[in-house]
């Protein structure tokens, strides 16, 4: 007997809204056991980012090796990395034992919600050349897609689709571009996968701006992928019906989006700070709420 087992390779974010902290809460809330390899340490409050410290590459490698050599991973999320050296080290670690990481979900974090760069320009370029080819699923926002491709921000769904296809051609089978920044009554995410293209629409939540939605979404996708792997292991795929078929990823992304939407709604009236709240977190623990 073993639970769905998930690794996050990502940065620490001190106020708990995004980064490794949000990943581990999300994995837990969705029933997975979470392990972590910390890539950088950021000092952040709801008012913004104070400092960003990428860790030495060997410190990152040592954590990844310790986890991947001994734990039976079902899925791995790769998030914020900070520097080109860390990007290259993560890519080398994945290449060294590719079969040990399960499904790889890449969320190539570039800029925080307050506009602070979370990776160097060389690091961003290295994500494109070294990590995209290793990812199974790429989950990213419109700004990250534009930066990776060296194109302007998409201004329409057609442009989002073009960008998703261009990214898919670099390696990952499945590409999800989130459309939080595309104006409109609905928020539209675009999913390109081996079976075609799906537009995922949801009502736009108009209250307080949130931080960590993209992080939480990619963590939720990773946790759900791991649950499917676990069902497969114990021979119970039939009991979960649709989610065990080739439509897996469409179903998984739709349920991950619902999780982020209810986590966002639920935290709208949270007040966590001494002063006026800036960007607030989502409530990652929404599934544990018994009321
Ligand atoms: N105002 C909103 N209302 C409802 N869902 C949203 C809203 N903004 C973003 N989302 C959803 O949150 C997820 C992350 O989107 P996005 O904001 O584009 O990413 P990031 O947090 O990386 O900038 C997506 O599934 C998107 O549809
Ligand atoms: C360490 C770290 N990792 C990721 C994010 C992205 O946050 P978002 O989910 O708001 O894009 C962040 N701000 N800090």
From TrEMBL:
Biological process, per Gene Ontology:
thiamine biosynthetic process; thiamine diphosphate biosynthetic process
> What keywords are assigned to this protein?
Kinase, Thiamine biosynthesis, Transferase
SUPFAM superfamilies from the entry? Ribokinase-like
Name all Pyridoxamine kinase/Phosphomethylpyrimidine kinase domain ranges: 14-230
Instruction: Tell me the Gene3D superfamilies matching this sequence.
Output: 3.40.1190.20
Q: Tell me one GO molecular function of this protein.
A: hydroxymethylpyrimidine kinase activity
Catalytic activity from the UniProt record: 4-amino-5-hydroxymethyl-2-methylpyrimidine + ATP = 4-amino-2-methyl-5-(phosphooxymethyl)pyrimidine + ADP + H(+); 4-amino-2-methyl-5-(phosphooxymethyl)pyrimidine + ATP = 4-amino-2-methyl-5-(diphosphooxymethyl)pyrimidine + ADP
| Keyword Kinase in annotation | yes
Tell me which CDD domains the record gives: HMPP_kinase
Q: Does the keyword Protein biosynthesis apply?
A: no
The pathway is: Cofactor biosynthesis; thiamine diphosphate biosynthesis; 4-amino-2-methyl-5-diphosphomethylpyrimidine from 5-amino-1-(5-phospho-D-ribosyl)imidazole: step 3/3
Q: What class of enzyme is it?
A: transferase
GO CC field: cytosol
What Enzyme Commission number does this protein have?
2.7.1.49, 2.7.4.7
Query: Briefly, what is this protein's role?
Result: Catalyzes the phosphorylation of hydroxymethylpyrimidine phosphate (HMP-P) to HMP-PP, and of HMP to HMP-P.
State what protein this is by name: Hydroxymethylpyrimidine/phosphomethylpyrimidine kinase
This chain's source organism reads Brachybacterium aquaticum
Its lineage reads: Bacteria, Bacillati, Actinomycetota, Actinomycetes, Micrococcales
